Amino acid sequence: MTAQPMARPGPGLRGRLGRALPYLLLAPGLLWLAVFYVLPAIQMFTYSISTGSVENGYSITMSADAYSEALNRFGKQFLNSIMYGGVATILTLLIGFPVAYTIAFRGGRYKNLILFLVIAPFFTSFLIRTISWKILLGDEGPILAPLKHTFGLLPGTFSILGTPIAQAAGITYNFLPFMILPLYVALEKIDIRLIEAAEDLYANRGAAFRRVTLPLALPGVFAGSLLTFIPAMGDYINAELLGNPSTRMIGNVIQNRLLVQNDYPVGSALSFILMAGILVAVAVYARLLGTEQLTG
Amino acid sequence: MNEQHPSPPQLVSRRRFVQGTAMAGFAAFLAACTGTKSSASPSEAAAPSVSAPSAEASVAPSAAPTEKVVTGPLKFANWPAYIDQTTEAAADTGVLPAGSSKTLEDFKAQYKVEVDYEEKIGDNPAFFETIRPALAGGLPTGWDLVVLTDWMAAKIIAKSWAEQIDQENVPNCANNLRDALRGQTWDPNNDFHYPWQSGMTGIGYNAKTLADNKIAEPTRIADLWSIPADKLTFLTEARDTFGLGLLKLGIEPDPAKVTSDDLKKVADDMQPLVDKGLRFTGNEYLQDFGQKKVWAAFVWSGDLASSGGEDDKFAFPEEGTMIWTDNMLMPKGAVNKYTAELMMNYVYDPVVAAQIADYVYYVSPVKGADEHIKALDPGAETNPLLFPTADIVAKQRNFQFLSDELETSLNDLFATLSGL
After folding, report:
1. How far apart are CA A139 and CA B292, in angstroms?
2. pLDDT tens digits, one per residue of B314-333
3. What pLDDT shows up at residue B52?
């Protein structure tokens, strides 16, 4: 008799808690997104349709001037971003796939060690790694000097630093683990018996790779290329340190507009266009690869 | 030219430099941990006599307890290769480690205070951007003493972002500043600044690389246009780059007469070089010369003499040079203001000033330093870097102070030129 009323609130509270639990678990993440993504994005959009200056303050004038300047004047840098981001994504895929494949299927007991080696350089800061490329690729650096003087393979005037090659190589290097790790996770999950079954069914090794391994690795390819392409497009350190004025990317312009010229409207408009562009590109890419395959 | 100088100081090797900076950083860290707050006492060491406010005021227990206490570490931001540094050869005598500075070491010993001297300034706008947010927000910048070129110093002073100098603490400055540098319109009584060094912007080149590639040594600005553009660098300091660009086109770089159209002509003239790989750098051109990455560049007059290699030369172009002065000022909110004033006063002692100028090869703003430079270094009077000849002086041009309109158009053209 006395136990019943005591028992009733129990399941009720637990039930309510149970219903609220997913939201409670999501709350820290949502709060994080709201404070560090949604609010800044709103503020940036507000700046992009404002006019004024840092000294005298900005007022919202709903002007689209910033957008038209951003598109008319910096088309080349947008193209550079797409090009260098794209080249780096393709190169990381070409370099990363064999590496991830080897670790997943041939790594054996060295798997963890090799994975550690992939990540090891990344214990150093991004900036230091890029600056060290400046030294490596220097005209009289450890790579070019022997090729020029000892072997005589290159003319004395040859240089890589400050060229599109150095910039693409730097971006590729800096984002390589972001490709290797998701690829490894996808490949590692593949049941080796599926490949054996394909071979039992008279598929040669090439066909088994094409029809079994590759499709099963697609989620890794998708995740890896997004993780590479998106930050690579916005990168400005590599262009600043390894490129030249003709290879500047949109990240350099945004940095310059916001921090050097104090041109907040154009800087914000550029950031917004970049964000929108990436969203569209990702949507198209997901559609092309087929999202069901990726989540399934 | 600099090659006339009998014994060019040796380049501090990268390793020694890294060791030096690491040690300095570590020392600063230790100092921070132990809360170094040395109250100064006059040094018994035979440091150069400085007719200073000296530190007696701080020792006297009664008078103005907080104002004249030497606090530290003094945070001092300067440009690369801009103070006397012990060369490796000199370091072998065992007095100071290579890369350290006699001026700074003596100052530290005399005032018993740490100095955190950092080569943080590669060009004016980039450095200013690192301190602007703090200044705008009314917060300390983390620096007690910074060295900035005229136009930037004037800008900071105009915004009331500099601490006022207590002239009582800097008698050497007040007495020894050269007359020609007094009475600047932007700070006529030197309430906020005292010059560090003056210099010129001209052409730097590596004579050996040019000879190897059968290119004549440049004597005119226009000669750079016939060197492969990817082996050239110009300066991110737009006033210098466009000033020399105007001289090349035969346009007088007089801020009162130059128009936006003139600047556009310079940009159009340089664009083909950019398309072929020309880069713009700050003071990092010293590293590029060290790595033989550049064959020729727009450079500041003393740098290659003090810190370049044997074959790195400076030329005063026939068309003329740009002239400027870099100035010490204390950013608003400087924590160790009194120590910063002591430092300004210290480097205005003619003996100390000579020691600095004879290393950095720039023109000292200190009256009476000349005699000491000549005593230190018997060939110096014929070195045009330290003592520009009448012919060089006649061709010096000042393109520092621009109207707002001209500055906007300069910044805009330069951004486009540098791909931004």
Report:
1. 7
2. 999 999 999 999 999 999 99
3. 46
- Total domains in chain A come to 2
Instruction: Please name the residue that has the structure tokens 């008698």.
Output: B171
- Among the partner residues A139, A253, A256, nearest to B292 by beta-carbon distance: A139
- Residue B129 has its nearest CB partner, among A141, A252, A259, at A259
Mean pLDDT of chain B: 85
B213 touches chain A (CB under 8 A): yes
CA distance B215 to B210: 5
Question: What is the nearest CA distance from B206 to chain A, expressed in angstroms?
Answer: 14
Low-confidence ranges of chain B (pLDDT < 70): 1-66, 89, 91, 94
Q: Does the distance separating the beta carbons of A247 and B277 come in below 8 Å?
A: no
Interface of B with A in 311-330 (CB under 8 A): none
Tell whether A38 and A83 lie within a shared domain. no
Q: Cβ atoms within 10 A of the Cβ of A125, count?
A: 9
Q: Are B327 and B149 in contact (CB under 8 A)?
A: yes
Interface touch A139/B275, C-beta < 8 Å: no
Q: Do A217 and A179 form a contact (C-beta atoms < 8 A)?
A: no
Instruction: Tell me if residue B315 falls in helix, strand or coil.
Output: strand
Contact list, A135 vs chain B (CB under 8 Å) = 291
If we measure between CA atoms, which residue out of A207, A212, A211, A217 comes closest to residue A93?
A217
For residue range B134-166, what is the model confidence (pLDDT) as tens digits?
999 999 999 999 999 999 999 999 999 999 999
Structural domain for A279, as ranges: 76-295
Does A139 contact B274 at a Cβ distance shorter than 8 Å? no
We report the CATH number of the domain holding residue A136 as 1.10.3720.10
Is there a single domain that holds both residue A41 and residue A125?
no
Q: Which is more confident, B48 or A63? A: A63
Note whether B151 and B237 are within 8 A (CB): no
Best CA proximity match to B196, nearest among B282, B304, B371, B79: B79
Q: Are residues A278 and A155 in the same domain?
A: yes
| pTM exceeds 0.80, yes or no | no
Joined together, the tokens standing for residue B97 give 């480690």
- Say whether both A259 and A142 belong to one domain: yes
Confidence (pLDDT) at A93: 96
* Beta bridge mates, B15: none
CA distance B48 to B173: 16
Q: Are residues A198 and A84 located together in one domain of the fold?
A: yes
**In-domain check, residue A198:** yes
Q: What is the DSSP string of B196-240?
A: EEEEEEEEEEEHHHHHHTT-PPP-SGGGGGGS-GGGEEEES-HHH
Instruction: Pick A140's closest partner by Cβ from B275, B278, B291.
Output: B291
Q: Judge whether A225 lies within some domain.
A: yes
**Does the CB of A259 have a partner CB in chain B at under 8 Å?**
yes
Of B346, B349, B372, the C-alpha closest to B359 is: B372
Residue A60 lies in a domain: no
* Binary contact (B230, A253; C-beta < 8 A): no
Q: Tell me if residue B149 falls in helix, strand or coil.
A: strand
Residue A65 lies in a domain: no
Is residue A26 located within the same domain as residue A154?
Answer: no
Contact B419 A77 (CB under 8 A): yes
Domains of chain B, start order: 2-198+326-386 (3.40.190.10), 199-323+393-417 (3.40.190.10)
Q: Answer whether B370's CB lies under 8 Å from B387's CB.
A: yes
Q: Are A162 and B230 in contact (CB < 8 Å)?
A: yes
- Please provide residue B119's backbone torsions phi and psi, each rounded to the nearest 5 degrees: -85, 75
Same domain? For A133 and A194 the reply is yes
Q: Which residues contact A41 (CB under 8 A, 6 or more apart)?
A: A275
B411 Cβ under 8 Å from any chain A Cβ = yes
CB contact B309 to A (< 8 Å): no
Nearest chain A CA: its distance from B14 CA (Å): 12
Shared domain check, A109 and A24: no
